[in-house]
Design goal:
2 copies of one chain form a homodimer.
Chain A lengths: L3 E5 L3 H13 L3 E5 L3 H9 L5 E2 L9 E4 L3 H11 L8 E4 L5 H12 L4 E7 L20 E5 L6 H13 L4 E4 L2 H23 L13 H7 L6 H9 L2 H23 L3 H18 L1
Parallel strand pairs in A: 1-2, 1-4, 2-3, 4-5, 5-6, 7-8
Antiparallel strand pairs in A: 6-7
Helix pairs in contact in A: 3-4, 6-9, 9-10
Chain lengths: 277, 277
Amino acid sequence: MATKIGIVGMGLIGGSLGLALKQRTNHTVIGIDCDSAVIDAVLSSGAADKTGVQHLNQADLVIIALSPDATVDFLNENAANLRPGTIVTDVCGVKRQIMKHCVPLCWERGLHFVGGHPMAGRERSGFANADACLFEGAYYIFTPPKGTPEHVVNLLKQVAMQIGCTGVTVTTPEHHDKMIAFTSQLPHVLAGAYVKSPNCPEHSGFSAGSYRDVSRVATVDETLWSQLFLLNKDNLCFEIDNLISNLKQYRDAVDAGNTQLIAEILSDGRGRKENFG
Amino acid sequence: MATKIGIVGMGLIGGSLGLALKQRTNHTVIGIDCDSAVIDAVLSSGAADKTGVQHLNQADLVIIALSPDATVDFLNENAANLRPGTIVTDVCGVKRQIMKHCVPLCWERGLHFVGGHPMAGRERSGFANADACLFEGAYYIFTPPKGTPEHVVNLLKQVAMQIGCTGVTVTTPEHHDKMIAFTSQLPHVLAGAYVKSPNCPEHSGFSAGSYRDVSRVATVDETLWSQLFLLNKDNLCFEIDNLISNLKQYRDAVDAGNTQLIAEILSDGRGRKENFG
């Protein structure tokens, strides 16, 4: 069934959603962005059929693809203009704080808010880096509040699969934030901490895949990610502390020259990677 | 000019060297391995022209593709059977200890020993994972002792480029070991430390490229890598300590809820990645 989908914020994620929806489905896309140059690019590349916030009252589904602060601000200002029954979702990398603000805000206006997080990204942001294939092979996580009607979650799942996702995970905001601190936030912390080695400036000619892999996401957007880190402070601090304590195990075994202990620690790591994938 | 090249140890690196040399050059390859099943596979896949340690006295170049301990043991037992003037190199991931043992051992028999380290690898070892394209895009690092004749280094550089390397780095064993602790050993420590998070078993459905990248080399061979870590203890401990101290910066800024400080720390990391590549 063709649906009218509003996308608010045509950056990397919103822009990729627009491109994927227009290239892979027959849904109508209303693309919103506060930057008129972005809107020009969106319309000329076919990432949306039309633009203008006044069209959002026609939408069956509104995907807010903004940072956490801006997501809440947008809903505060625009929820009253959406049709009751409209499904609203976000794409933020944290879910507890988003749900806390957006669920009641939507509820009182008869809108269905479901937290969303497509597990896809690039080292660079903005519509210029948007890609219709961004979601290929990715999981899309949804955190519906209790009592969300089945058709709401089903529509979101369907759209996620239509844009190329490999699977959908439905979970609580609490579990999402705990897992994301490990799978996404910690690697972003790590990448930055890693390239701060005094030997990093000379890596060229001495580095290969391992350097590239660990350092890749150090180009993170600091304005967005400082927000995301703070909104998941407890889980992120737990993961950093845990990693530091694990690193100390290796350090102490190497420093003590204990070959057998090093081999055991390495073997434990290998076993986990083999088991957990 | 066609050269006779002996490869001792037809595992991932030795096997890939054999395949690359036979597919891309007209050099003759003598492949040596203590496992007769591996030798059968080597000969049937065309990774060597012939086998048998007795042929090594015809070689112009012998590449020992074994672990550090086994490299020194092999030279102790076989250096006397090589022709004076033969160039000998290894592929170990550490260079100070290798040079310390192998240079005098070769010198007294009229052999030219040059430390070597092709910056290529895979998550899995053994000839079954060997690949003629393994060295494509990789750097090959050489650590020639002082006084090494120019033709020796030139032949090694030529072979490195012939097997597909993107460049050759010539440096001291000290500088090699310092850089490799950062570019290669630390990411291997990190991968193992990372997958030891109590949340790792549940990552499926919540993970994407960042998880894959950081955890990739956790499948490290513990027997080889515990040796490599110990032979580079000072540099590796320095890098782990440095990383822990950098991670603490992020942790403390997040824990303090200091958005500006987090953004500054992230921005510093981004700047370094953008500058250093």
